[in-house]
Specification:
Layout: E1 4-8, H1 12-24, E2 27-32, E3 43-46, H2 52-60, E4 64-67, H3 74-83, H4 91-98, H5 100-110, E5 117-120, H6 123-132, E6 137-140, E7 151-154, H7 161-166, E8 172-176, E9 180-190, E10 196-198, E11 202-207, E12 210-216, H8 223-239, E13 244-253, E14 258-264, H9 274-277, H10 282-290, E15 304-311, H11 319-329, E16 334-337, E17 347-355, H12 358-369
Parallel strand pairs: 1-2, 1-4, 2-3
Antiparallel strand pairs: 5-8, 6-7, 6-8, 9-10, 9-11, 9-13, 11-12, 12-15, 13-14, 15-17, 16-17
Bound molecules: adenosine-5'-diphosphate (ADP).
């Protein structure tokens, strides 16, 4: 019987699982909020992922449930598990990617290196943390943040008054302002039987809170730091019981430490390079992992891969036309499109370029990406 993987969420991550699913001989079914981009490519149910009856009905027809985002409520996930549905990652692991305070506490328990942090409930507590950390700090909403929304650098506790009000007595997260040289990301695949495969650690470049570029493997990173990143990744995947793909976002500090920023338990933008630059792409690996199939090699195919996100430009741009022009100009660039309408700042695709030299890969990838500005 062909195995069926149910993906909750109909964004580009679900969409990019479809090609490897065909190669693996498994079927993807999607539960999407609206009849969106996966609908032309995989059997898609439209419904609300917060509604238990909807999710239950969807889960009935698949062998395993997994995700394109982390927003499915814990109550819904736990009800599925109680029904006997295979859910990967399961609610016990996923809670650590859903709530940054719960994550910080768990990372402390497993001994992963992280910035100083605290859960604060009042302006006074927050001000005391800021005063203890040279007058500045980063406040974060524990839930609901993405692409830098829900993250604020502050010098005065009053700058977070609106969040204290919105979170009505619940603690919000405050962290030391980390002085970092750059940001890295370590991915690890883990299957229910416990097998783990770490990917090469990569460098990520964020612009306005959104991932702009990825260099794989991270250039100029010493052997020990590479090993340490992989060890932190596997320690977290194992310690938190993650199944599927885990991404650990890291800071490389100016004094050469690696500190965990945050976690994602699904394929991640920092791993899009693997589609063209690694033996097993993160999307194939995620499917293998959630189906508890043997994992593939995560080795890089070449010395260097550069991934650049394509963000939507001005309204009215014919994105398909741009894709065609960029493809013609750069036949060596792998240009991926998500089939989305272009809106300013919206992720509509990405470019991967492999080379034996990262500067060369970045040069070609940037040149191809400029066709979308
Ligand atoms: P999101 O969930 O929106 O991706 P993150 O927690 O990853 O939010 O934070 C977004 C960005 O803010 C990070 O990529 C980093 O550049 C910056 N940032 C987050 N936490 C800190 C910190 N403690 N110190 C310094 N910069 C930070």
């Amino acid at each position: 019987m062909t195995k069926r993987v149910g993906v909750i969420g109909g964004g580009q991550l679900a969409r990019m699982m479809i090609a490897p699913a065909i190669e693996l001989g498994v079927q993807i079914r999607v539960l999407a909020e609206q009849d969106g981009m996966s609908a032309q490519l995989a059997q898609t149910a439209v419904g609300d992922y917060r509604d238990l009856d909807t999710v239950r009905a969807f889960a009935r027809d698949v062998d395993v449930v997994t995700f394109d985002h982390e927003h499915v409520p814990q109550e819904v996930l736990r009800a599925l598990v109680a029904d006997g549905v295979a859910v990967h990652p399961g609610p016990d692991a996923l809670q650590f990617a859903q709530d940054k305070l719960v994550m910080r506490q768990k990372l402390a328990d497993v001994g992963a290196p992280q910035p100083d942090w605290a859960g604060v409930q009042t302006r006074d507590e927050l001000q005391a943390f800021i005063d203890d950390h040279s007058g500045r700090a980063v406040v974060k909403t524990p839930r609901g943040g993405y692409d830098g929304k829900g993250v604020r650098v502050i010098a005065e506790a009053s700058e977070a008054d609106d969040w204290f009000e919105a979170f009505a007595g619940e603690p919000i997260l405050v962290e030391e302002l980390v002085r970092f040289r750059r940001e890295l990301a370590q991915q690890v695949a883990r299957r229910p039987s416990g097998e783990m495969v770490p990917y090469p650690v990569v460098e990520t470049v964020q612009q306005d809170g959104v991932c702009a570029e990825v260099f794989a493997p991270a250039p100029n990173l010493g052997e020990r730091a590479v090993e340490l990143a992989a060890r932190i990744g596997t320690q977290i995947a194992d310690g938190l019981g993650v199944t599927g793909m885990l991404a650990v976002e890291l800071f490389e500090t100016t004094d050469e430490r690696l500190l965990v920023n945050e976690l994602a338990m699904r394929p991640h933008n920092s791993g899009h390079w693997t589609q063209d630059g690694a033996v097993t792409s993160q999307f194939e690996q995620h499917l293998r992992a959630v189906l508890d199939l043997p994992l593939g090699s995560a080795d890089a195919l070449t010395d260097a891969t550069c991934m650049i996100n394509i963000l939507g430009g001005p309204e009215g741009v014919d994105i398909d036309e741009r894709f065609a022009v960029a493809m013609e100009a750069h036949p060596g660039a792998k240009i991926h499109t998500y089939g989305k309408a272009s809106r300013p700042g919206r992720k509509v695709g990405h470019v991967n370029v492999t080379s034996d030299d990262i500067a060369d890969a970045a040069y070609v990838a940037r040149a191809a990406a400029t066709y979308f500005d």
